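$ ./design --mode recover --in tokens.txt
reading tokens...
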């Protein structure tokens, strides 16, 4: 999904009992005047990353169609996870695939990749999350790649857990990443209380999709993301009416990044060079075959220099 926002806006970020920091989403339109709207919790000025997770868009359920023309990426991996609907994916690595509920698509665009995303005719409602992973400096020029995985459902104390990245509740994803990570969908039944063993070296974020959930002693509102830092060996989720959440985790990234449009880099000049290469249609990004239309032009760079961003100490 193409990101049209140059800099993260100021967003409410509060601390709550149990050292849970609540990140409130902001509405962001994607794709012009007839854009679908997404709820964005990462990045924002107060927190740019959770582990290597540097971007979190949550959308739907909306009766909309998606048609995102070929656009570029550098220095990241895209993680597509749907709850409802179907999206056709084409990329310059030659992959033609579909994003479906409960199935992970992970695309690596280190040195440069382009892709398109179009909802299928069978999809009247779209509902899901689009996530990005920043690549560490040692791997940020990784070659193009695409991985698909259908995680099994593991039942833990009545909750249904699907682990699409990393390990949790005895389930391990085989999908390759460049830093230690966790990604899982968890569906809690009404009245549930679930305690999960997690890596103490990880920081974690819990995104509430639907229903009600309490993380530790902190209740989250729909669309918000509860953040907890390292040093936790367990996380407890409880719900009165039932809920669906996405759990993200990873070791603190430890590097500053520059993020603009669809690029992740390290300096303003590097981002500007990526933009010029996309506009010049160089081989860095390749070509997306089979999309019936033109590719997206890059927006103009902002007036000032792009600044590196990290996390608070």
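writing sequence...
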């Amino acid at each position: 999904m193409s990101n049209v926002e140059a800099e993260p806006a100021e967003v409410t970020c509060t601390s709550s009992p149990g050292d849970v920091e609540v990140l409130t989403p902001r509405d962001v339109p994607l794709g012009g005047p007839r854009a679908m709207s997404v709820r964005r919790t990462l990045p924002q000025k107060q927190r740019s990353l959770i582990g290597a997770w540097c971007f979190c868009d949550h959308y739907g359920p909306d009766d909309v169609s998606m048609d995102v023309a070929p656009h570029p990426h550098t220095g990241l991996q895209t993680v597509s996870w749907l709850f409802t609907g179907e999206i056709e994916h084409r990329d310059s690595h030659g992959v033609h695939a579909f994003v479906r509920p409960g199935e992970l698509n992970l695309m690596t665009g280190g040195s440069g990749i382009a892709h398109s995303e179009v909802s299928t005719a069978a999809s009247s409602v779209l509902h899901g999350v689009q996530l990005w992973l920043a690549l560490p400096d040692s791997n940020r020029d990784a070659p193009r790649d695409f991985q698909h995985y259908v995680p099994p459902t593991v039942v833990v104390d009545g909750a249904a857990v699907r682990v699409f990245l990393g390990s949790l509740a005895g389930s391990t994803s085989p999908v390759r990443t460049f830093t230690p990570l966790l990604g899982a969908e968890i569906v809690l039944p009404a009245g549930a209380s679930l305690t999960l063993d997690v890596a103490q070296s990880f920081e974690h974020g819990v995104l509430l999709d639907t229903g009600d959930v309490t993380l530790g002693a902190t209740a989250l509102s729909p669309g918000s993301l509860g953040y907890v830092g390292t040093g936790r060996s367990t996380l407890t989720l409880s719900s009165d009416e039932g809920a669906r959440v996405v759990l993200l985790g990873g070791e603190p990234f430890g590097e500053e990044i520059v993020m603009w449009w669809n690029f992740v880099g390290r300096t303003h000049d590097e981002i500007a060079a990526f933009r010029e290469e996309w506009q010049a249609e160089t081989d860095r990004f390749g070509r997306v075959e089979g999309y019936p239309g033109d590719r997206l032009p890059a927006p103009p760079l902002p007036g000032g220099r792009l600044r590196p961003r990290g996390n608070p100490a």
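exit 0
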